[in-house]
Structures are given as structure tokens and as C-alpha cells.
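This follows on from our talk about sequence and fold. I would like you to pick a protein and set down its sequence and fold. Go ahead and set the record down below:
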Amino acid sequence: MRFPKIKRWLLFLLWSWAWFLLIVLLIYPISYGIFRLITVLLCLYLWLGALFLFWNKNSIRYLCFLLALIVSGIIILPGYQVDGSILRQKYVQELSYYEGSLYVWGGENKFGIDCSGLVRRGLINANLKMGLLSFNSKLLREAFLLWWYDASAEALGKEYRNWTKFLYKAPSINELDNSKIQTGDIAVTTDGLHILAYIGNNVWIEADPNYQKVIKVKVPDASNIWFRVPVNILEWRQFETG
């Protein structure tokens, strides 16, 4: 039995549509587990498609092999620890990038983001950019895992996957002792409904469902409900290294 050959133009059309779908998934703010799986599979399909469709073009063929080598290096090479204080600073910079972004429940990018998406995306971006600039495979793997394993505010407050470390409980953010907190620390309400990040100078950043956007708030602030409820203070364990 002979199977019909798929015409080259049809393969190219399917490959082009895969690019379109990947871009849509990257832009769409809400990222379910199935979306992340499809994103990874699309990247693999696009790599295989480029290799097959443009095998005769040396530059593209070599580029495909180079990408495969880079990904293999990220997976295999151990990488190295970085100064936690430097990562803290980068984290705060990345958080500030999202100021003014629209609040979208389940959102994880500039087009829409929620409270847990904000604190995770800041660290994803910090790991990704520092990893690329320093060729540090460990940071790149951390960025991928933070993206792959979604985590709610409640989960992060319970030290999900050992990413966070509980420091202490406070009656409210307004009543915090500022001498005990560092930039990059996070606060999770004890009911697990909301999470915020401290960026220094008595200022916190949050994706606030009441204001429907990412805002910076200077404490004390009696008008913001999240600053008047009990919170658990945690830090990212990555910030311990150095």
C-alpha cells in the first residue's frame, strides 16, 4: 500500500499556520497547562519543519542545528549559582515593567496579568534575561520551570515546589516593620487570595483586581483592602544564593 505524498506547498502552509498559532499563544495573556504544552510542541514542529522545508539552504540548516545544540546545552549543562542580590535587583526592574498592565485573571503577560502571574513573570524574565546574557543554563532552566508550572498566590504562600521560603507573619502590610523586609520579598494574604511584591522605599507592586491593573502603592495606605489584612512574608529561594 502506497501512502500519498503531501505536496510541498501544503507543508509550507501548515508550517506557516503553526507560526501564526504560536504567536497567538504567546500574545494571549491566559496560559493554561494545555496551552503551554501546545507551545512547546509547536516550537518542536517549527524546528522540524524548517529543517525539512529548507534543508537545501545551508544557513537555515546550520541555524537549526545550532538551535538544537543550544537547547541541548540548556538541558545538560549544570550552569552556576548567581549572586542573589543581583537577581533581586533584576527582579524588581522586571516587575516595574508591568506597571499599568490590565488585570486579567489567569493572565501572565503584558497584555493582561493577575497577582500571581505578576510575581512569577518578574522572576521568569529576570532568570531568562540574566541567563541569556551570561550563558547560564541554570537560570534558563529556572525560567522555563517557573513558566511551565503555574502557581497561584495560595500555592506560593505554601512554598510550592520549594520556590519560596516563609519568613514570618504580619498583622498587615501597613503594620510591617520595614527593617525586616528586603526588596523582592513577597506578601501573601493568609487566606491565599492575593500576592504582592516589595520593590523598595515603602512601595509595593500588585496586579489589583479592584483597580483592574498593575499598580504601585506606597505604605501605609488605609484605602487599599490588601494592605489591611494579615499576610505571610516570603522570599524567593533563588535570592538566598550568592
Notes: The chain has two domains: 8-76, 84-240.
